[in-house]
Specification:
alpha/beta, Peroxisomal Thiolase, Chain A, domain 1, 4-stranded mixed β-sheet
Length: about 350
């Protein structure tokens, strides 16, 4: 039976690229240090007042144009983000209003970097049940709000002054996190495949709340009354904490196992997969997964050097680039794989 497939893609990043050299102006780092540990050369950051729904509008317009579909034909929005415009409501309804399609259901999902494998399974279920026909799937993030520096004009190369010792030290305390993330949005238009046995094949999804502290925001939650306090902000509890080395090991092990398992479940040989589209968290993770699974380098492309980790948007941005440059096309078998905070992880198989 045919599943949902991708009929259009688009992405959008805000402003001008921020290089590793720019980050070295506000904390103790360097281009070589960042590239060696992550593979990242630059990233993009939104301006104050720009939310994920704003980035998503531009990505969605590009995807709709690519699909040849009018916004009025969309009958369901799935919006993946861990950095919503507001604590509530979700960003999905905001995107619908900005696209002029208020009234359709809009669902926000919170699987962070692992959102896309989850979203494909969800979208397929909605279409197969008859609840939707044409779905707009979006991943969009604005991580700027938890960056640990205050001298944005210096980071954006709009000023040349030296930052204060206090500001430098504050940014430096969160260096391992701050060098990784960037802002961006990606969108996909999904419909049921017209090819027999085409489209979504299946997904294998997992979560492990026992490991939540590998990547989480320790404060500004509803275990506290009020949920945001001056003390929490002073303690920098609104900035995510990450256990990087342990997270890397977990990602390599779980993603490798999940890819092997999903191939076995659906009777697919790894050699049959034309492209492995992995979440772009850290190039070291993806290289280790590639080596563990013995995937040829050309079958697991990377664009993290240009964007950094845009969380829920990474897979969509990479998919858009691969479709537009002809690396993937109709009939190709794709394996999407990702791990994110939660911990959540999974893989999905889909034939274009």
């Amino acid at each position: 039976m045919s599943g949902v497939t991708i009929i259009g893609t688009g992405h959008y990043v805000p402003g001008e690229p921020v290089t590793n050299h720019a980050l070295a102006r506000v904390m103790d780092t360097s281009d070589e240090w960042i590239q060696t540990r992550t593979g990242i050369q630059q990233r993009y950051f939104a301006r104050d007042g720009q939310g994920p729904s704003d980035l998503a509008v531009e990505a969605s317009k590009n995807a709709l144009d690519d699909a040849g579909v009018a916004a009025s034909e969309i009958d369901y929005i799935i919006f993946a983000t861990m950095t919503p415009d507001h604590f509530f409501p979700g960003s999905g309804p905001l995107l619908g209003a900005k696209l002029g399609i208020s009234g359709i259901p809009a669902l926000d999902i919170r699987q962070q970097c692992a959102a896309m494998p989850y979203a494909f399974q969800l979208a397929n279920g909605l279409v197969q049940s008859g609840a939707a026909e044409t779905i707009l799937l979006v991943g969009a993030e604005v991580h700027s709000g938890f960056m640990p520096w205050t001298d944005w004009d210096v980071v954006r190369s709009e000023a040349e002054r030296e930052v204060t010792a206090e500001a430098y030290e504050r940014a430096n305390r969160h260096r391992g996190l701050a060098i990784i993330f960037g802002d961006g949005a990606a969108a996909m238009v999904l419909r049921k495949s017209g090819a027999p046995d085409g489209g979504f094949i299946g997904a294998e999804l997992h979560s492990d709340g026992d490991s939540f502290d590998h990547l989480y925001v320790p404060g500004c939650g509803f275990r506290s009354i009020p949920y945001v306090t001056p003390e929490a902000l002073a303690a920098e509890e609104h900035i995510p904490q990450m256990r990087g080395p342990s997270l890397l090991k977990k990602a390599v092990k779980t993603l490798s196992q999940t890819v092997k398992s999903i191939c076995e479940t659906y009777g697919v040989s790894q050699d049959e997969i034309d492209c492995f589209i992995a979440h772009q968290a850290n190039d070291r993770i993806n290289q280790a997964v590639r080596q563990a699974l013995r995937i040829p380098p050309e079958k697991i492309p990377s664009n993290i050097a240009r964007y950094g980790n845009t969380s829920a948007a990474t897979i969509g941005i990479l998919t858009d680039e691969l479709r537009r440059d002809g690396t993937i096309g109709e009939g190709d078998l794709l394996c999407f794989l990702a791990l994110g905070a939660g911990l959540n992880w999974g893989a999905a198989l889909l034939r274009l």
